[in-house]
């Protein structure tokens, strides 16, 4: 247990350190009327992709990606995100010729933060299915706005490194390894840092004006304090544990357990005596 805690802590720290290593200079992409994004002017085209989180190829927002891949591979890219940004990830996969394919192919695009937590896509077709006759398949994932702070349990996107994984989830086994061409682009727009944080109209102060205390009668009609008669009646039939020793580590449960064990032992001895066969002497 202690070893697993140390390992989990090392993974979290490693994710944060690796996330800080990616440069946070994200060039804004230009939105198009149809909701897509276009590459930034003068951006260098990336022609590589990683095969895991540790080997993910670093890209920037607005930087186009053109990669030659094979069906069945996992492709990884990493980009930096700042607070207040909204990211749109678009990918186009040019499929092998229809004559070489034997069935439909299901592709998916996923986004993870620096701690390997999968982030939800709020817009776009994340897992389309390409028919046998289709020449290409388009994928899109729009992330939530990156927040400057969040509760640890919320899982909201925070500034740091994000990983894009493009993979194929279902295809005929005969189609594995066929060549495909992938085009990917990450767009970033600034939505502001207070889009969903909100503001308090008034400070949250505790109520300090206490109410009045209701007056209570000092004695019952019989001259006894109120509730004394009820206490006597209750003591007449309620079982009391006052006879037990006042030990900090023992309670009534211990005595019931010990008593049950003794009764079980007696029952075992009696049962053995009743079922034992008499010894026959030769």
TrEMBL record:
Q: Which UniProt keywords apply?
A: Membrane, Signal, Transmembrane, Transmembrane helix
Q: Where are the transmembrane segments?
A: 254-274
Amino acid composition bias (Polar residues), ranges on this chain: 211-221
Q: Does Membrane show up as a keyword for this record?
A: yes
Q: Which region ranges are annotated with the description Disordered? A: 211-232
Signal sequence annotation: 1-26
- Highest taxon above the source species: Bacteria
The name this protein carries in UniProt is Peptidase
Organism source for this protein?
Answer: Catenuloplanes indicus
């Amino acid at each position: 247990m202690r070893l697993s805690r140390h390992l989990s802590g090392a993974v979290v720290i490693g994710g944060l350190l690796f996330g800080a290593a990616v440069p946070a200079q994200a060039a804004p992409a230009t939105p198009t009327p149809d909701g897509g994004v276009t590459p930034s002017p003068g951006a260098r085209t990336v022609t590589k992709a990683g095969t895991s989180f540790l080997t993910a190829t670093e890209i920037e927002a607005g930087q186009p990606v053109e990669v030659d891949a094979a069906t069945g591979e996992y492709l990884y890219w990493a980009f930096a995100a700042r607070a207040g940004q909204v990211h749109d990830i678009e990918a186009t996969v040019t499929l092998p010729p229809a004559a070489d394919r034997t069935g439909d192919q299901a592709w998916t695009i996923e986004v993870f933060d620096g701690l390997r937590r999968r982030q939800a896509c709020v817009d776009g077709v994340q897992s389309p299915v390409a028919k046998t006759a289709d020449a290409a398949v388009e994928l899109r994932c729009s992330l939530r706005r990156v927040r400057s702070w969040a509760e640890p349990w919320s899982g909201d996107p925070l500034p740091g490194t994000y990983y894009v994984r493009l993979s194929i989830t279902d295809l005929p086994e005969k189609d594995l390894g066929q060549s495909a061409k992938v085009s990917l682009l990450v767009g970033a727009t600034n939505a502001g840092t207070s889009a969903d944080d909100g503001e308090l109209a008034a400070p949250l102060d505790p109520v300090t004006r206490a109410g009045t205390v209701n007056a209570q009668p000092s004695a019952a009609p019989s001259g006894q304090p109120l509730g004394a008669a009820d206490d006597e009646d209750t003591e007449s039939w309620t079982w009391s544990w006052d006879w037990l020793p006042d030990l900090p580590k023992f309670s009534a449960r211990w005595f019931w357990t010990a008593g049950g064990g003794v009764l079980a032992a007696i029952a075992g001895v009696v049962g053995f005596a009743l079922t034992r066969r008499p010894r026959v002497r030769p």
